[in-house]
């Protein structure tokens, strides 16, 4: 069996399958665990993801959590294997259903020919439905039997982990080690129970029901060997470590899903680094605190999700006017209003760029995958410091929560210890000179002129004095615009994956990177291959130079984004690009079902635009 | 990027304030000429504040004055120190962060009653709870000055303004009651015509280790003339000053106010306008600055003062 999700060469559906003894070799697999949130299916997913990371395999996860406080249906999907895993998979190859509702809600996500593993204690599959290999296992009672009465049905997630380890010939010593590391804190008893559940799952004669077992193809050694080991984490965690590596030591925020885990981690981590994080009374206070820290001379961070970003807008305008460095993260979720807090959407772009009052040009960045969450945080820090300006990072719910394995960053080369620069300011110091971008001068700095600077949101002249002169306002508006344009000159040139010219250039931002790449692979290698390139935008404002020339090389520029097509039929980024480049070949593929793009949706979207 | 330490060589520039330096004097502190209307009470507050800074003699570069938006919030422009003004109503979280970020700075926030009790009311409440070390001076004129006479949260019932031409109908905020309830650790009140008293209140506030607030009745001659005459003896009013306990064992002392007694403070706060003047409440509760520094110290002890690189390296090992 080969995953139909795989788009790496040789991974096409129906391609050659090497069989060794009773084990079928597969490039990768998509497993969806469906249960309730308290069943610990997230942690099974976490174990699998981390194991993949430690086994030089690639992995990507996807999960939904209920918006309810405790309990409620929940899924965790993990795709793991040997190739380059770019998306969490359009369809599942394996579905593990813990309850009848899990079965009913998710059987449609299982591809025909896939395997349904269900708990016979709770699930009765439809006997008419013969599309799948049905494997019934008394998961609940077998766990109770293995762990004993006291364990109740608590360990059934670990039982399933054992089952999966058996089916896919996973590295048992490594998995046991992970279980010990993860549960060790809860005492020996917890580890012992978990291991009993795991062993029982592993010992279950599942091959009798399945007909055979699987193993992952060995990674071909042609791929670049990485010098550093892989690390496994979700996007929000990677973002936190990127901020810490960049020297961010202060911040403030107010809780909101799916941003909260960043603030929780920062609150826990920062004291270790000599810094601190404040839980503010609301998002306005949070951004105000963060700007206060920044004014006092520290690189600082605030963050939120959609509605919270709206509340921060006035203060962000002040940050642009007063020219104070700040990192503001926005983990996008479904909107408007409180919308769909646990679903993904990319509909805060225009808010990030234009949400403030007045003409407030600003820097907006977006990471492309979990690994990039680390690097984009460092990039934001660089720009904020170099240009004394607020920088917004737009990430999204899918990136925030999904787990990926990636090469450990070269910390020795990257980590920066912050320095508080209190060098006295020269006599001719001006805080806002036209055509120069000096750094913010924090309090504690001696002013050799004897004149201390007033930092203000009022329009001001070069010295910082309030001024309502029309000439000054026009000049200062231009100064703020030119400053952001100057950022563009420091950005790396655009990289295009695939065809460098031809039929279509597919553009995306944030979490759509992987599915777009898979779609591009498919479009270039199908029965009727077409010439397609991929350009993933990490710098949404300003754009790195050269886009107009790149666009001119393709018949269509197809922008894929998770937001509404709007009044004119274009998603938010597409609208921006159309506005900036007045290029009618820029078209949109959008969706707002709260889910990440499926590869086939992108393929179909591109094909539709090309045949139009 | 220059990363010179604090001890970079200095040119001939004036080093003012602080031990062993030329003392801070009004002439150093005066900045732009105030843009207030002639006769505005805020002039007197500014003059008193210069005196407070002269007495405190902090190093000039370590003084930070910040404000929100309003006539009174223009204050920092008129003090030659680091500072500025932030957005309307949000000076407290901004200024608190300056204090939390830098132990070496002396942080003062200024604002009006609109800035502090209306748009910034929520922040005032939480600043008091958090007890960050800083001083907040509210110039209360019971009207919106900068926006030209609308009802403010401290305007009395019946006050006629552009937004209440028939007279204000809402119960005014009682600043003292509000601040005591919120948990501020230093709460005082003064009147812009009582220069010595006002100076003393601000001085004591600045010396308090925690979140200190001084509300100063400061007349807006343009839009609320005579509003505080009832507390001004020169205008025939009655000045009711709070006398603080001296603990001298005399019978008179029994009648004096114990500022650590929250209940007595609340009773003073409940008096009808224009009410009492002086220190209502003063207690020591650990500041957020100290609690956070202690937390950092404890944590750093556990991590044996590891560098950022070491910390990140060990974290990433666990992520493998
Ligand atoms: C978000 C926002 N809303 C409204 C205003 C307009 N505004 C400026 S100052 C002010 C009221 C000032 O009153 P107060 O704080 O009492 O100060 P005063 O001018 O009386 O000293 C208002 C409503 C603003 N600047 N920002
Ligand atoms: S309007 Fe009132 S508060 Fe404002 S400056 Fe004039 S007198 Fe002072």
Q: Which key features would you list for this structure?
A:
heterodimer; A: 612 residues; alpha/beta; 7-stranded mixed beta sheet; 6-stranded mixed beta sheet; 24 strands; 36% helix; globular; B: 320 residues; 8 strands; 32% helix; binds thiamine diphosphate; binds iron/sulfur cluster
Brief overview, please?
The complex is a heterodimer of chains A (612) and B (320). By secondary structure, chain A is of the alpha/beta class. Chain A contains 20 helices and 24 strands.
Strand order of the largest sheet of chain A: 12-11-13-14-16-15-22
SSE string of chain B: HHEEHEHHEHEHEEHEHH
Helical residues, percent of chain A:
25-40%
Instruction: Give the N-terminus to C-terminus distance of chain B in angstroms.
Output: 35 Å
Class inferred from helices and paired strands of chain B: alpha/beta
Strand content of chain B: 5-15%
- The proportion of strand residues of chain A reads 15-25%
Strand order of the largest sheet of chain B: 2-1-3-4-6-5-8-7
| Shape call of chain B | globular
Share of helix among residues of chain B?
25-40%
Structural class of chain A: alpha/beta
